[in-house]
Design brief:
about 180 residues; mainly alpha
Amino acid sequence: MQEEPVQPVVPPASQVTAPALQAQTVASPTASLTPIAVLPPTGRHFLAVFFFSFVWGIFGADRFYLGKIWTGLLKLVTVGGFGIWVLVDLSQIMSGAMRDKQGRPMLEYDRYKKFAQRTVMIFTIIVIVMVVATGVSLYYAITGIMNQYMQSGSGLNNLIPGGVQNLNINQLMNL
């Protein structure tokens, strides 16, 4: 009586998870089995490229991660192309146009593009609120100091050491 060889049972691609990278087989003491390996996709992940660009883009970290060493060094030396290169790279990454050195697109772009857009939008709103709050607080601080010295009766004389005197050009030359 001859036994039939046992074929490996591999789950469909949609059910393969990280622990299931090795082939699942039905064990038989007499059958020789060839394991089937499921290879991970090649390329760079969108979230990694996005965060490298968003956080350390001025130093060229996104370019180094994508394998573009020379442009990464140039971006590092020019401090992100004086900020312009950083914005260009970030917009390319967020639009999905950025490729790695081999020309491969970023992995899972479609899945995480809305997350990246929300992150940039929230960051922009926070920066705008902080700039406006800083401007308003500076305005009130400066007007408060000026009002305090104007009400003291001496005007700006207290701000300048020695007070304001009527100086002529000869006195300035002798200083």
